[in-house]
Write the structure tokens for this entry.
Amino acid sequence: MGCFFSKKSKRKSSGKEDLTPTTTTVETTTSNAVPLGNNTEEAPKQYSWDKREKVDPKDYMLTGLKDVTVGRLPGKLNGQQFVIQECENCNIYVLDHSATITIDDCVNCRIVLGPVKGSVFFRDCKDIKCVVACQQFRTRDCKKMDVFLCCATQPIIESSTGMKFGCYQYYYAELGFHFKDAGLSIFNNNWSNIHDFTPVSGENNWSLLPETSAVQDFVPVPDAESEFKSVRISTDPSRSIVPLTKGGRRKDSEESCLFVFFAGEYATANARKMIDEAIAKGFVLIQTKHVSMRPEEAKRVFQNDAEDLVELIKKGPVTALELNGDGVVEACKNIANEMFSGTKIFVSDNKNTSSRDVDNFFNFADMQMGL
């Protein structure tokens, strides 16, 4: 039972497709000119397509750079696709949302990518340290990459070795809006659920970074003298837009609790508030999900409690948290009473059934998301 409470471009001849960014032109409407004075000749008509804003593809590429700090400031991409290629020993900060990003033939670079609506694809890269948020993450023919990742789907590596992954930890003022513009949820992060498309028997091509790994030690914030000095960046996990989760690492306790917020104006804020409170009390956030449910799915997931939840589920996606630690169920119930007494929520009722609650919900969520 649960408890409820009310309140690319130029490529080497390797067969890789041309991925030069395509850009969208902006139309500007103008009225017809009016003849002046005694000039009786009618001025030529002007149409919207006669005055299009010129877009330079080079604005959406970084190519052949070495030993520099470069990138794009917020508002410079606005959902376009972007290409990074043949860069060496660079610090690259793409602090805007985009459609897709491809990174080819880069060596010894530190890279930060703002939220990407589609895919991020690394090819033929080596010694890369990066912070990435995207719908899909892929690598091919890469070596030695450290990736702090937020990925809505299962990350895929192919013919890649020495790959290490950690949970996304990053903040800048516009980042929350960029996640929304890219259609990404901060609660759907499968950073540790890696699929190796080309496994080698007896070898492991990927692993998880140590739990104590800090982004700052891998990808430093931009220098104060750089063009990015106006962007307030933080790599403090407590300020990260994406919640820091334990992911696929071994749990410290056998006791976990399911805590679910239903659709509403403050659902995201309340979920963040709950995470902060639980962590402050010494508990660990294992995983989160933001998914839609149908009434029949609610019955399968919440079982005896489903009847009370059907109308809430119809309002929109739910946000679920798995919290872990000895005594976490009772602590979550107390937090719910104290902080969310006027909010519709679900929280595991006792530790004997809480593991079932967690398994039922996250197995459903993973199936729905195709994981």
Summary: The radius of gyration is 24 Å.
